[in-house]
Specification:
By secondary structure, this protein is an alpha/beta fold. Helix content is 52%, strand content 13%. α2 packs across α8 and α5 crosses α6. The radius of gyration is 14 Å and the shape is globular. It starts with a strand and ends with a helix.
Length: 142
């Protein structure tokens, strides 16, 4: 099973853990990472993940997230198709980066787009080419 984690998902364990929902998503994300390390899930990385993470001012977090690129079974490069699909997702109200992440996940034939971004999750019923889910839901439903 091929999964694409967006930048919000990769950053979840580094967020303030006071909220129960954030703690649960962080724990679920760590379980997903464990399954990736064990070869039970295939991780997809993309050029937009690298670009967005590279802008992180916290060097330690940036480096820890970039390590996941080495475990990816597939790295999605940019293409005209991705940009075109991204523009279509922007018409649904997604930000440019979120739209490109989603287009990369679809182009890489990922089975799941895993995110903690509530804006994306609210629009998932309008996107049919991939299953969009948060980490907690993924762990419960897998």
């Amino acid at each position: 099973m091929r999964v694409y984690l967006d930048n919000c998902c990769f950053n979840r364990p580094f967020d303030d853990q006071e909220s129960l929902s954030i703690r649960l998503e962080s724990e679920a994300k760590m379980i997903i990472q464990s399954k990736i390390r064990d070869g039970k899930l295939e991780l997809v990385w993309s050029y937009i993940l690298y670009f967005e993470n590279d802008a992180n001012p916290d060097e330690e977090i940036k480096n820890r997230i970039n390590e996941w690129k080495e475990l990816a079974v597939y790295i999605q490069l940019g293409s005209k198709t991705i940009l075109s699909n991204g523009k279509n997702f922007q018409k649904l109200g997604l930000s440019e980066f979120d739209a490109i992440h989603l287009a990369c996940a679809i182009e890489s034939e990922s089975n799941y787009f895993i995110t903690t971004d509530k804006g994306i999750l609210k629009k998932r019923n309008r996107i049919f080419k991939i299953k969009i889910i948060n980490p907690s839901e993924f762990i419960v439903n897998e």
